[in-house]
Specification:
The protein is an alpha/beta fold and about 220 residues long. Helices cover about 25% and strands about 25% of the residues. The chain has helices at about 15-30, 35-40, 75-85, 100-110, 120-130, 170; strands at about 65, 70, 90-95, 110-115, 140, 155-160, 175-185, 190-200, 205-210. The longest helix has 13 residues, at about 15-30.
Length: about 220
């Protein structure tokens, strides 16, 4: 069941006009799913950016969040969310928690989210945001994201917020038959492509979408 939480208190105190403009830009760029647009309008993105960047939170651009990482531009978050929702998921694995924004968008849509982050400092900040937003259906883990979360597999959908030259086999095997995996694929400093894999009884069907630019998918923890 997809639903939208509305109890935001002071966290949502930004101009409605600014949020409306963001949604209109997303529509103009091809985002059509009404629930995704509703969440993008309602979720306070300024909570997920560093102090001093709040005034830029509703621009359609990526912003730094520290540790060499970024919060993805709203269009990319909305686009990847739409591609995940095609599988009608209930349980989603996210690789690369970052600021926590993408996980929060998925949770606002009523999904149970499992998110893995390799950088402990980023995960601490994200967890505080989850608590402030009362997103109790998000579970998080400090670990090497390339390994996924095997104890909770299989997942209906898997979403990667960092790019590798290929999708790790460990992650592909944690996807249920019929589920989808959405990821940027390609080398750094070269064109990357947004890819969706759907698991079948015989393997994986692949679809390619637009060119994207993501931080690298790294191993280990810090």
């Amino acid at each position: 069941m997809i639903g939208l939480r509305r109890d935001r208190g002071g966290l949502g105190m930004t101009s409605q006009r600014v949020r409306d403009k963001l949604v209109e830009r997303l529509k103009g760029e091809g985002i059509t799913h009404p629930r995704v647009l509703e969440v993008m309008r309602a979720l306070p993105r300024h909570v997920f950016v560093d102090e001093g960047l709040e005034s830029r939170a509703y621009e359609d651009s990526a912003l730094p969040i520290g540790s060499g990482q970024t919060i993805s531009q709203p269009y990319i978050v909305a686009r990847m969310t739409e591609l995940v929702l095609d599988a009608k998921p209930e349980r989603v694995l996210e690789i690369g928690t970052g600021s926590g924004y993408q996980a929060s968008v998925l949770a606002e849509l009523g999904l149970k989210v499992f998110t893995v982050e390799r950088i402990e400092a980023l995960l601490r900040h994200a967890r505080r945001r989850f608590r402030a937003l009362k997103l109790e259906q998000i579970r998080s883990r400090h670990d090497d994201g390339r390994l996924g979360w095997p104890d909770e597999a299989p997942f209906d959908a898997i979403l990667l917020t960092a790019a590798g030259e290929y999708v790790p086999e460990d992650l592909k095997q944690q996807l249920r038959v019929g589920g989808v995996l959405v990821a940027p694929v390609g080398p750094q400093n070269a064109p990357q492509t947004l890819v969706r894999l759907q698991r079948t009884e015989d393997g994986f069907d692949e679809q390619k979408f637009e060119s994207v630019s993501f931080v690298p998918l790294l191993g280990g923890i810090s």
